[in-house]
Amino acid sequence: MSNSSRGGENLTASGKRLRVRNATVADIPGIANLSRRVYNGTGIDPYSAAELRGQLNNFPEGKFVVTLDDDVVGYCATFRISGNVCLKPHTWESITANGYGSRHDPNGEWLYGMEVCVDKTVRGYRIGQRLYNARKKLCENLKLKGIVFVGRLPGLARRMRKFGTAQAYLDAVINKQTNDPVLSFQIRNGFESLGLVENYLSTDRDSMGYGAHLVWHNPKIQRDEDGAQVKRYGGRQPDSIRVGTVQYMQRKVSSFNEFMSFVEYFVDVVADYKADFVVFPELITLQLLSIEDQELTPIQSIEALTKYTPRFREAMQDLAVRYNINIIGGSHPTRVPNGRVENISYVFHRDGRIDEQPKIHPTPNEVYWWNIEGGNELHAIDTDCGPIGVLVCYDSEFPELSRHLVNQGAQILFVPFCTDERQSYLRVRYCCQARAVENQIYVVMSGNVGNLPNVANMDIQYAQSCILTPCDFPFARDGIAADTTPNVETVAIADLRPEALHMARNSGTVQNLRDRRHDLYQMKWRGK
């Protein structure tokens, strides 16, 4: 079965943390309660503790939960099975052994999806997407042919009069002539229809007992059938981290909500490409100063901006969790507890955490116009894709900083920047390329374009955002994984492979990190 209910709680406002992990026996009460909430009123029986215990004991690595702090808000159950069984018409009771999952075949070449259910109170946070991602990752890791299941058609009963037959309804959903809350989501996730299954689950009143027989083929495994495999838009390279850099247009806005609508647009776009990170430019929030009816003095500007800090943090945190993507939130001038103003880059994790990285070296313009002071903390930031580092614009021109981050394990360096003309931009660009070569890391740059005539020191912008690599055989010939057209609002996306960095560091044409002369020089950090 597959069911995704939607409601409307703000998960991040209270600081709760969202996690995806393998289910354990201790989760059985929470999963049972979840199934009761989800299937209440549908005619489908909730899972008993005995059924859930059987599912976990028969194939524990195929069971996943999404937890909001200690509460189970999503559940996914799978098991292995032969194609001779799952690719033929069947019923839910027969293939799942009445819900116990005891037909698990350790030698089965397909992964069967017997359940996905999501709490209706977590509407809009892509809980179902996270569970589908976990299911696909398991399939790929086990090197199985793909995933098969029969999905619900919860919109069928109330639309049967319009379409006449279940097959006509299925065809209309597949052809995007109508929307089904479950099947449409599954099709967007790359599943193909094998046809309609009658009497799949007779108690499912909304689906009238019907189900859509669906299959997803593991892209890492050669297809058996003849003919070319259907191209999947936005497919991932194996073992890669996908990053998207936003070249953002500064334009006048009338409200904070309008500003966030532009930001959310790009988060949505990059998330649709199944990216792990999206990065925005330095000082992106200065756009909020265009709300004012008159030009503010520099001191007034900073005071106005700092008032937006709580709203900005909360809104970006919510987007990261809602769209299931890690956001490097550019930078935002922030008044810190000791009264100083620092230019801080916030990292919003998709599990709800927030990290901060202050700019260490404010530029002369920042000091003159806004009295911004430099921070004194520089840490590698642990993410679900490994350790990363953030250097805000001018900081990238100081090689000691990136070396300090790499010494802590950072493999990707994100550089939000804001430059007014080409010479300023090229200083940052050339230094970022040098950081990629000398540290054998990936560097992702994101800059502003456009202008804000009534905002002091943001008159004009020049940017060509890019994703840079070391220069060696495993990487792009020119050390550029992706870049943008200068001064155009757009996005660049690339897949980055940590394995390629490891190869370059240990067996590359040059091995900058390994060949350092530690007997002659060192980088010693005296800050926090």
TrEMBL record:
GO molecular function: hydrolase activity
InterPro entries, alphabetized: Acyl_CoA_acyltransferase, C-N_Hydrolase, C-N_Hydrolase_sf, GNAT_dom
Domain CN hydrolase, chain residue ranges per copy: 241-498
Tagged with keyword DNA damage: no
Keywords attached to this entry: Hydrolase
Domain spans labelled N-acetyltransferase: 18-221
Top-rank taxon: Bacteria
PANTHER family: HYDROLASE YHCX, NITRILASE-RELATED
Protein name listed in UniProt: Carbon-nitrogen hydrolase
Organism of origin: Spongiibacter thalassae
